[in-house]
Amino acid sequence: MTTRPSIAFARFSVPGKGSVFVLSAEDGGLGDAGKACDPAGVLERAFPAVDFNAKFASVAEVLAPEGTQLDRLLALGVGKTSALDEYAWLKLGGTIAAALRKATDVTVVLDLPGHSLGAREAASLAAGLLWDVSGARTTFIAGAVFALLASALVITFDLSPKS
Q1: Rounded to two decimals, what is the model's pTM?
Q2: What is the pLDDT, as a whole number, of residue 121?
Q3: Alpha helix (H) residue ranges in the chain
Q4: Beta-carbon neighbour count of residue 104 at 10 Å?
Q5: Cβ-Cβ contacts under 8 Å for 23 (sequence gap 6 or more)
Q6: Whole-number Å distance between alpha carbons of 5 and 16
Q7: Domain 19-158: which CATH number of 3.40.220.10, 3.30.420.310, 3.40.50.40, 1.10.287.3510
Q8: pLDDT (tens digit, 9 = 90+) per residue, 89-102?
Q9: Exposed, middle or buried by CB within 10 Å (0-12, 13-18, 19+), for 56?
Q10: What's the pLDDT tens digit per position in 51-85?
Q11: Could you tell me which residues come within 8 angstroms of residue 154 by beta carbon, excluding any fewer than 6 positions away?
């Protein structure tokens, strides 16, 4: 039986359930969309406790984060943003796949301060994730904030087996 993802696009909204991955850069921290997923600021408090410094492919995880209905909130280190190329996004997708565990509802927020991320980055990250994933429903959100207008790309993958 093959697994074929179905893909849909929508506007950004703060995820209300499941596991959420936000990006953090060595040279910029969390973006506005990432911060919106963490209203109580639990990640910033957790970073020193787990020695998280946003090095490439590092992960900091908070279970049942305060102020949300999420199961898990994870920060994914992207390293220095100047080093992000297509291959780096593939590897970041693989890092997310390794951290999924038993999650079935996953959101990845593609947002970095001062950087415009879009379809190319989302596609490369998704390709890296899909090499390792089966049976999870994954959503990718690429967010960029322009003045007061938030524009985002959402890609939803339903990876449940088709009969």
Answers
A1: 0.81
A2: 86
A3: 32-36, 42-49, 86-99, 119-130
A4: 14
A5: 30, 31, 34, 75, 76, 78, 109, 110, 111, 112
A6: 22
A7: 3.40.220.10
A8: 989 988 988 888 77
A9: middle
A10: 999 999 999 999 999 999 999 999 999 999 999 99
A11: 8, 9, 10, 11, 12, 139, 140, 141, 142
* Amino acid code (one letter) for 61: E
Which amino acid makes up residue 150? A
| Structure token pair of residue 112 | 């970095």
Tokens found for residue 3: 């697994």
If you compute the radius of gyration of the chain from its CA atoms, what whole number of angstroms results?
Answer: 15
